[in-house]
Amino acid sequence: MELADRDPYTAVQGSLHVMSGYLYQAADLLDPKRARIMDIRSGAGRAASVGLLTPEHEKVVNRLRDAALSAKDWDEQVSRRQAREFVLLVARLVSAVQERLHMLFETRQPPE
After folding, report:
1. What percent of the chain has pLDDT above 70?
2. Domain ranges of the chain
């Protein structure tokens, strides 16, 4: 949030990068074999391939990615308020995915 006040654009891009990295690593934790077989480079794609993201999560990820990409256009300026809201949305999404990851770990059958 502090970065959102100082450099809104960097806060948005950094949040998107952190979210993608988390999704990538969480997918590897949940199902490393499938994650490697799928060989998907994006964190969201990898998390979706192992069933970590719900359809609602995928929609939010796509909207966040689109918003961050539109901020790359020279015409688009990111305000401090927009950056703070973006960072909060990313944090809420990561928290929801963390809860789902824990739930999937708890209900997963041990390998035979």
Report:
1. 90
2. 2-107
